[in-house]
Amino acid sequence: MCGIVAAVAQRNVQGILLEGLKRLEYRGYDSSGMTVLNNGSLTRHRALGKVAALAEQLDNAPLPGMSGIAHTRWATHGKPSEANAHPHHSSDQVAVVHNGIIENYEHIKQALQANGYTFTSETDTEVIAHLLADKLNSGLGLFEATQEVVSGLGGAYALGVMSVVEPGVVVGARQGSPLVVGVGIDEAFLASDPLALLQVTDRFIYLEEGDLVEIREQGAIQIVDRDGHQVERPVHTFEHGDGAASKGEYRHYMLKEIFEQPEVISAALEGRLSTNSVLVESFGPEAQVLFQNTRQIHIIACGTSYHAGLVARYWLERYAGVPVQVEVASEYRYRHPVVPDGTLFVTLSQSGETADTLAALRFAKTLHYVGTLAICNVPGSSLVRESDMSLMTHAGPEIGVASTKAFTTQLVALMLLTLSVSKAKGQPERAEIVAALQSLPALCKQVLGLAGQIETLSQAFAEKHHALFLGRGAHYPIALEGALKLKEISYIHAEAYPAGELKHGPLALVDSEMPVISVAPNDDLLEKLKSNLQEVRARGGQLFVFADQAVGINDQDGIRVMKLPHVHEALAPLLYTLPLQLLSYYVAVLKGTDVDQPRNLAKSVTVE
Ligand code: AGP
Prior knowledge:
This protein is an alpha/beta fold.
């Protein structure tokens, strides 16, 4: 989605804003722009394409000034173009950056046009600039004007606004889209994500829904809640160092994040296991009683997080004996779900700001769930703050749009949930799974050691337009995730099927041109899977199998086998994810696509 960064400082803010935009580029990147107040005038640059294009303009014509707002856009209303890029101005008196969607903008636009305002973009955002100008002309200050304007806006927004009438002031507002305040020494900032500001501060205030904030010279910060009351919000210190937001020695963030998995899986486990058992209290003091009374679980998420939920269904039903439903948030939020007594509502999200997942949680809170739990990677995110309980996945910042380490740490968290529910219900301890969890980081390292071989294998895909992924049991969701990764970053059309479903239709697609990728761990469905693979072989399909080293599937004509170390059956979905991530990555690199920022996608989907 769009990204906002704003600064009021005692120094030139151009560099701070530009660096912030670079760090926010993962959120959306079809255009960007910056407005800075200089000698009483608003000066602006906007550029189509990546932030680098804006940087070039700034090199040629710098925008010096001590307060400013900037934006990276992911188009919703109006095509990507310079005219539609933010900031939007009204008669060079007001500048606005916005993340979100103003649902009633057409109606407002007509009224403004009738009053003589001229529009220069196709965006919904421009109405805010003109509305603000109108209020300022009636004599209101910037803060009061913003307060009045947002009270008439429908939809979702995070805003940053500034005006020539109040130099050295930026006002922000948050309703449905994330916005944080960066607390500096005698300076203050706003951004969509703390990552944008780690170069200047590690102290942040997470605004609540409906909050309005004013940042001023000398670092003064004033926050007013949705009811107009002045409030103090806690200042949090950001946990992860700034290094987490850089690529280091890696060519892409995605590759770095794939290779970080052993380390972040350890972090996700840290302090949550005793020698033989899980510590149920990891989920909070009330978890023991809540899990004991949990009779069903509904898991809601989007995209990759949804795939993690699908794996958890196999685990929770098998190892904790609790029935589970898993659903994508965009469907759930508009259904009339039946909620049996004793149902726990669980959301999964890397960002904690995904609009559909957040809306699903808010809807669920109107139903009679026994409690809500968020499994999330971003402390202080909306999902975490609005849920009864939360468990952080500790994956650290994930910048690549294609989710990798966030997924595997979600799986770790979901296995901890499975073991915790089972333990709270008094079922036998699963010491062997606990031991397997502890050995997982080392096994992941071994699998990452196959990167060179997988890179070679990827050559077979560079010219392909389609691919099929097969898995059975808890590996069907892993096949879905493998297909999603390949689609997202290499733009190869990929479908995933439960292998047993092949003969009911998709087998018609198989010929000598169709690559079929399968995951074959050593589990009780292995023999069934082998028969399904024979069905592919018999039709001349090209098979690529990631198999347990002990299962006896070997390279032969038409079958390429990549052998993985043995892992406890319960944790195989985690381990088998890694080679599929690597395969997608190397195929995308061969095809020359934009691995970290694939076309049309955004990291954090904060609009519906
Ligand atoms: C994953 O590679 C995708 N970028 C996407 O499917 C993502 O998982 C989805 O948008 C959900 O995001 P969240 O986990 O932040 O809620």
